[in-house]
Amino acid sequence: MLKFSRAEKLIGEKMRQKFIELRERPGATVISFDELYGCLDRDEIILIDKICSANPKEYGKNFTVFYGINPVPKKMIEFSGQKYVSARDGKTKTVRTQYLPEAAGRQFLKMKAAMQKDLGTAINVTSGYRSPAYQAVVIFLILLEKKWSMKNTLRCVTLPGCSEHGHPPRQGMDLAPVAGIETIDEFYKTAEYQWLDKNAARFGLELSYPPNNKFGVMFEPYHWRYVKN
User: Fold this and answer.
1) Disulfide check for 64: which of 41, 56, 150, 213 has CB 3.0–4.6 Å away?
2) pTM
3) How far apart are alpha carbons 73 and 164 in whole angstroms?
4) Rounded-to-integer distance, Cα 25 and Cα 23, Å
5) At CA 82, angle to CA 30 and CA 93, rounded to 5?
6) What angle do CA 215, 217, 85 make, to 5 degrees?
7) What is the pLDDT of residues 105-115, one digit of tens each?
8) Pick from 183, 181, 130: which is nearest to 157 by CA?
């Protein structure tokens, strides 16, 4: 199991603001490791590599799948300006720009149009492609929040190369209703979810983590994957 020295923690604290800015900049979710490392010095790169080298099984994540550290796809579809109604205040808001590899993106658009035709409402992609390098940014910031506990960090987020969001042949995407929802974990109660349950397979999508799944992951009604390439 990983342990971090006082010197490493000091390096990490100095990196915090840099990584917050990286996470928030436009196009952050498709950043490559070359781009990420270009923003870091030698000690910072060594620290990130150490964090990414963690073995999930040492932290009880026995069913974690390693898909590999693959290049960012060259052909992506950008989803910008997606609107939804906030369940908290009823105001129309905009989803942060998301990206999907071309094949997955085209099928999502077809599926969204079909749902709109059937239900008179539809869904947005709230989290699409996330590159392994972006996953490294996210896991680093959560590690700081969790006071350098890898065990607690891996309860919230997976390692680079282990997420369907960064694996186009099994492209993960989080979906949410345009009409808004107060608690995304209750997405399964909506008409949009029921429509997906009956129709998503026609567009090459399936639910990643259904109830009582073999991976031991809690039921995630919002997390779907495109599997027909």
Assistant:
1) 56
2) 0.90
3) 14
4) 6
5) 115
6) 135
7) 999 999 999 99
8) 130
